[in-house]
Amino acid sequence: MHTDNTSLKPLQIGELTAEKPIIQGGMGVGVSRSSLAGAVAAEGGIGIISTAQIGYDEEGFERDQAGCNRLAISKHIRRAKEIAGGRGLVGVNIMVALKHYKEHVQEAVKAGADVIISGAGLPMDLPKLVGDSVTKIAPIVSSKRAAQLILKMWAHRYERTADFLVIEGPKAGGHLGFSREQLKDVEALDYDQEIKVYEEKFHTKIPVIVAGGIFDRSDIDHALELGADGVQIASRFVTTAECDAAEEYKQAYINAKKEDIQIIQSPVGMPGRAIHSHFLEKV
What we know:
283 residues; two-stranded antiparallel sheet; 12 strands; eight-stranded parallel β-sheet; 10 helices; alpha/beta
């Protein structure tokens, strides 16, 4: 197999630079915490911690889930930055669908997250929640309409725009912004015009990150050739030694065949991909 050894162009987000234009996607519960995010950042990429029930192994979690989750957010951001040793960037993925969304955002900002990526809903109030902090913000969008809605609202209400956009295609893992019908047949989406409007308005470049089904270097090269500034990769990282998930979970990925992957209704009511199991049969 031919492998391309030429180096990838760094990803510039405002004044922040990631040496490699790769964002490791957030995966909960407990799949991407400080161990994985720190390892990715240490390689010059952007490591992302998922805040979904992040404090599940903290003492007293059954009594005070919200408190334990807040505690774990700052703990894991700090730990990931230590692992990264000053390289790359460390951020969090916070789902809009979370009950304590606001508190998670505020905790992440306080802990010094470089970036906050927000999907599983429309993060309309994210600029207000991060205030004038240096933390960069990005929505995850799956349609031109969602991108337009968010950028328009942020501009009108908060006089600011997205620091970057994560455009998630239909091949991604969880919480897809597509109906089941669309998932059967989705064309490439063109966001160029939408983005240009806000780049001109705010005299800034809005980097575009492509996500969903990015698996290897040829996928990365393809996305960058199409004009993307970077890629977001999640599932590919699950089976690494550094991933925070349990060994059995990683093994399920390794053992899975293509036909084992099915579309389910995720806990937040959106379609998502899962590996067929006895648990899925029960639910």
